[in-house]
Amino acid sequence: MARSRSISGSGVWKYLNPAYYLRRPRRLALLFFLFVSVSMVVWDRMNLAREHEVEVIKLTEEVLRLEQMLEELKGVGDGKTLMTHKDVPEDPVDVERRQKVKEAMIHAWSSYEKYAWGKDELQPRTKDGTDSFGGLGATMIDSLDTLYIMGLDEQFQKAREWVATSLDFDKDYDASMFETTIRVVGGLLSTYDLSGDKIFLEKAKDIADRLLPAWNTPTGIPYNIINLRSGSAHNPSWAAGGDSILADSGTEQLEFIALSQRTGDPKYQQKVEKVITELNKNFPADGLLPIYISPDNANPSYSTITFGAMGDSFYEYLLKVWVQGNKTSEVKLYREMWEKSMKGLLSLIKKSTPSSFTYIQEKNGNSYNDKMDELACFAPGMLALGASGYGPDEEKKFLTLAEELAWTCYNFYQSTPTKLAGENYYFSAGQDMSVGTSWNILRPETVESLFYLWRLTGNKTYQEWGWNIFQAFEKNSRIESGYVGLKDVNTGAKDNKMQSFFLAETLKYLYLLFSPSSVISLDEWVFNTEAHPLKIVPRNNDQRKPTITLRQRRFGGEIKG
Ligand code: DMJ
């Protein structure tokens, strides 16, 4: 026993002794071979396990995606297709801020309800209403989708009853076809898309039919004023040489294309698309058009080139029709024209001194003007929305430009004693920006851009900036009977108008700034220039049949993400 123990003991130890192998090279080689083989098997197994893990993750993601699709399909017909469901936990700060914005909407709406029901706009200080748009209930219609999105059910139902029983477009009134389209046609169509309630589509068709004769000009570029009863149309007397205004003539495409899609009648789409093909005939290489265009021969007349007043939404709609048309080859022309215009926009970009604020100049002939309207603060949002259609380098360049311009626009607010922006700004060497026209009429453009930048970059800074602007409105513009603009952002002196776009746009964009991205997802909706979201549906050139049918959504609280 003692002997065998010592043999087996020395047998184990000798294999662990390196000298044993040095004396036997063949065994050393065998050992090395064994080591390499085992290592390869282990390495191979580990790789396989890793590949499996990746595969499992991919499959889990796919299952989640399919589950989500199933959820959405289950919602078809009860209005739930209008939103995407995602169980993402919400930041409690966002929830609280969203509530505050909703409360602001309740205050604005109940003031309108109390003092100006059915009128176009509320005059909060005199506690009455005024018909600034011919008595079309502009604030009522502009507010419908905001009420709906915020889940203000009772208010929405009461407004719906007014639309069904009291809204009458048969008015001997010379209306702006631009304002009437973006507020009334846009507001009604958006509410139809959200609710599926046919009354809104019927009314949208009624007013659009009254506007249609405005396009009966030698070129198809519309007259900008039209009598809602007689259909007689003309241009405003103050416009140069009886010309049409660029923004007023090129900002009906989204609404009228949407109307053709929803009614199955191509006539609306044909009228507005003709304007773009006409303007494209002599479209300059830099894509910049002066603000006055002849409806007789489509020639631009010597006038300002601007991304501010009277130019702005023409450029916005070139991009948005491309988005509305699912970015397909059928709407390629719009994207091409927009990209040309963005080349032109780059040629107007300048930096201030000493603080290097990026701004967009205006141009007249060959001379540049260091002035930027607050209205042009829609441009950062437009650039952010359009950036993803470029290749990676251009995308980055335009997104960076959007962020720089948003910083400038935010500073339009921050640089005044009330922290509310004036109407326009001048830039001069060594002095950065100074306010020109110093009123603030509750405009939305900067918060609109902050909304897009927040959605598209996920950078919470934009929410903070939006929150600061909201607080400045609360502090300076809120009074017991609604919200007013300021006559002067330096002194805080108040005016007497609650603009309808404050409820349509400013409060809606602020509300969405603190809502999950799935609420009115940018993949499914496109906002018109008055912030009325229109559902993106397949573009159909054969429009004999309606391309979408929506049933009415049961009301039950705010639209959830
Ligand atoms: C709104 O009617 C629209 O946003 C339009 O495009 C520009 N003017 C106002 C808001 O400032």
Automatic annotation (TrEMBL):
The active site is at E179 (proton donor), D312, E423 (proton donor), E445. It is a single-pass type II membrane protein. Its cofactor is Mn(2+); Mg(2+); Ca(2+). Ca(2+) binds at T529. InterPro entries: 6hp_glycosidase-like_sf (IPR012341), Glyco_hydro_47 (IPR001382), Glycosyl_Hydrolase_47 (IPR050749), Seven-hairpin_glycosidases (IPR036026). Its main location: Golgi. Pfam families: Glyco_hydro_47 (PF01532). Keywords: Calcium, Coiled coil, Disulfide bond, Glycoprotein, Glycosidase, Golgi apparatus, Hydrolase, Magnesium, Manganese, Membrane, Metal-binding, Signal-anchor, Transmembrane, Transmembrane helix. Residues 49-76 form a coiled coil. GO terms for cellular component: endoplasmic reticulum; Golgi membrane. Belongs to the glycosyl hydrolase 47 family. This is alpha-1,2-Mannosidase.
